[in-house]
Design brief:
The complex is a heterodimer of chains A (179) and B (497). With 179 residues, chain A is α/β, with parallel strands linked by helices. Chain A is 30% helix and 20% strand. Chain A has one domain (5-96, 132-175): Rossmann fold. Chain B is an alpha+beta fold. The chains are: A alpha/beta (179), B alpha+beta (497). At the A-B interface, strand 1, helix 1, helix 2 and helix 5 of A face helix 1, helix 4, helix 5, helix 6 and strand 9 of B.
Chain lengths: 179, 497
């Protein structure tokens, strides 16, 4: 028990689908929790990451807080994994990069259909948005990239089991896809 | 009571406590509390801190991309966005009536989606609070703890979710972000082998659905008073219903009822939603605040999701769920809607059981094997699609030009509808359970328990990015740091009035 590997996960600017795909390992989660202990993840109430063996990041960076979380993960994880289209290349959220940030905010909060009062949220409690959405390897060093929108549960399972066994990771052709 | 906690009069003199990130919810949000020197709560807010800008960057895209593009709003209920967008694009291509095969394949997909989402929410995210207590140790209060202590319950939850995901895979090609629905229909029906595959486990799934309802009833009635009172607020409720009043999640009209259960409006054509609903904006959240226009921004807020649907419908058309509904409604005082926030869990599992029954029924329908998949008509400029996502009523609205390029998009997602209600609930908890006390992690978890009951999908809610991980940074009014709290909050971030 003492030598379980510690795993942390976070979703930055993504849709949480990669985390759902992680759960798509289905009942294989039962043997998985024999091998690993979860640190900070959306599935636990641990809110601050401790030292971990593996960190898995879903989503790109779109605001100041995303950057802070990502830096914390890099600092505490021996191995950092970029999981899914948004982390790997920005994904759908990066579609806003073709517009000015101001235009996006104005569309949602000033020109939207059926708005009772129009204003752009600006409270200091809301993290500052970045002008563009970026893939995470533009901010920190990444050790593995796992493509897909999302990568399938089977691909995540292959990846995790080979990594945990200390083998070179090699996904079969059928598990590599980008949609 | 709670309204006065929205904005403190002199925030600069107050101590800020933040619960961040909210955990075991979908999406990224945080709660801030402002306390005075005696630990009295003066302000409590649920903030949604992500913004994605879908409404802008969807502009300029061809309409047929929409169902696969906007489902990336959310990886937990992508099918909901996929189908709402598909229904809107049905209208755009002038497909007023789908073929029986297309509609039934979509309904099957949606039942699978609701089943898996409800299983995820209850078993993976919320059952630790309900099985172990809100004050269980942080390290243990999660799905791994459930696997260790209640392996049978955990396994049923995992396999219920798996079944729903498999229904989605069979109908949409992929478990997450599939492509089954297209403007005017679907791109595939089911093969005999696929039907048999799904049929092989369905009896077990229905049985487990019944057991899940029995479990939540046991939990609810064991601590009845607490469950009735915790985070409880009085609200109106909004949902779709079938023309005959039956429970409906794919089609139907809008029904809103007030606290007493009296109709505010009923069987409203979804195409007219703009005449009934407005959205307000507040400076401190990216999530908007919808309200029923005739009642105004102050009083017009409402709740959606399982609690609203089970309260609002006249009956379920499947026998086991209907039996459970009757018992559920009997728990409301004097026939009024049951308002207990924690009854969301109960209603959610009744719906899970209904989905299992409805899938079983559909799997015997030969239309699922049909090959008449698509209809088309004249291109229209405006398309609106409304469905009941697992978390509540979901509105998609698109306008296109003569070339089929999107010019305007409006989304009111399920969780957004519950924004005011979630804020009211955390203020109720803050007043009743936290006020004047030395704040500890278990106490703060109660705030999250209240938020979790709504099964908020904060990813969807901002049309922004989903997130989940959370830190709690917590200081009490004497500046004492509670364990596992980060982000010293000595004033760098101040909540303005």
């Amino acid at each position: 028990m003492a030598d379980k590997l510690r795993v942390a996960t976070a979703s930055l600017a993504g849709c949480f689908g990669c985390h759902m795909s992680l759960l798509d390992i289905d009942e294989r989660i039962l043997p998985l929790v024999e091998l690993v202990e979860f640190d900070r993840t959306p599935l636990t109430d641990i809110k601050v990451i401790g030292d971990c063996d593996i960190g898995i990041i879903e989503g790109g960076v779109a605001n100041q807080e995303n950057v802070e979380v990502l830096l914390e993960f890099r600092k505490h994880c021996k191995i950092l994994v970029s999981m899914g289209a948004c982390a790997v290349n920005g994904g759908i959220p990066a579609m806003r990069n073709q517009f000015e940030l101001r235009e996006c905010l104005e569309e949602s909060y000033l020109h939207g259909v059926g708005l009772g009062n129009a204003m752009i949220p600006s409270d200091p409690e809301i993290p500052l948005l970045l002008n563009k959405v970026h893939p995470i390897h533009e901010v920190v060093k990444i050790d593995y990239f796992l493509p897909g929108c999302p990568p399938s549960g089977d691909a995540i399972w292959t990846f995790l089991t080979e990594l945990l066994e200390g083998k070179p990771v090699s996904l079969p052709y059928t598990q590599i896809h980008y949609d | 009571m709670s309204e006065q906690l929205e904005t403190a009069t002199n925030p600069e003199n107050l101590q800020r406590v933040v619960i961040e990130p909210l955990t075991r919810v979908e999406g990224h949000g945080k709660v801030t509390l402002l306390l005075d020197d005696d630990n009295h709560v003066r302000q409590a807010r649920l903030h949604i801190v992500e913004f994605r800008g879908f409404e802008k960057f969807i502009q300029g895209r061809p309409y047929w991309e929409v169902p696969v593009l906007v489902q990336r709003l959310c990886g937990i209920c992508p099918v909901s966005h996929h189908l709402a967008a598909a229904k809107a694009t049905d209208a755009l291509v002038g497909a007023t009536q789908l073929t029986p095969t297309a509609e039934k394949v979509r309904r099957l997909m949606h039942f699978g989606q609701t089943l898996q989402s409800h299983a995820l929410h209850f078993f993976h995210l919320c059952s630790p609070d309900l099985l172990f207590g809100f004050d269980d140790a942080v390290r243990h209060r999660n799905i791994v703890g459930v696997i260790e202590d209640h392996p049978e319950i955990a396994k049923q939850g995992v396999l219920l979710r798996k079944y729903g995901q498999e229904v989605i895979r069979v109908t949409a090609g992929k478990r997450i972000h599939g492509t089954g629905a297209i403007p005017g229909g679907v791109n595939k029906s089911l093969s005999r082998e696929e039907l048999d595959y799904l049929l092989s486990d369905i009896e077990q799934v229905v049985t487990w659905g019944g057991e899940a309802v029995a479990l939540i009833k046991r939990i609810y009635f064991e601590q009845l008073e607490y469950h009735q009172a915790f985070a409880s607020i009085d609200s109106s409720m909004l949902s779709l219903v079938r023309p005959d009043g039956a429970f409906e999640i794919y089609a139907g009209g809008l029904r809103a009822r007030d606290v007493a259960g009296k109709a505010i409006f009923d069987h409203v054509d979804c195409n007219d939603y703009e005449q009934y609903l407005r959205e307000g904006v507040k400076s401190w959240s990216y999530m908007k605040f919808p309200y029923i226009e005739s009642l105004g921004a102050e009083n017009g807020w409402y709740r959606v999701g399982p609690l609203a649907r089970v309260n609002n419908c006249d009956y379920f058309d499947t026998p086991l769920a209907e039996q459970e509904r009757v018992e559920f409604r009997a728990a409301g005082a004097g026939g009024a809607p049951l308002q207990a926030t924690l009854a969301y869990h109960w209603a959610r599992l009744i719906e899970l059981l209904h989905c299992a029954e409805a899938i079983r029924e559909l799997l015997h329908d030969p239309d699922l094997l049909g090959d008449d998949l698509l209809v088309r008509g004249e291109l229209q400029s405006r398309g609106i699609g409304v469905i009941e996502a697992p978390r509540g009523t979901l509105f998609h609205h698109y306008e296109i030009d003569a070339d089929g390029i999107v010019e305007k998009c409006n989304l009111i997602v399920s969780t957004t509808n519950n924004n005011q209600a979630m804020n009211e609930s955390i203020r109720q908890v803050a007043s009743n359970y936290l006020d004047g006390r030395h704040l500890t992690e278990p106490l703060l978890n109660q705030i999250e328990v209240a938020v979790r009951a709504y099964d908020p999908c904060l990813s969807c809610a901002t049309h922004a990015l989903g997130k989940m991980p959370l830190e709690i940074s917590l200081l009490d009014s004497r500046g004492e740091l509670v364990e596992r709290l980060v982000k010293s909050s000595t004033g760098e971030i101040r909540a303005p009035g």
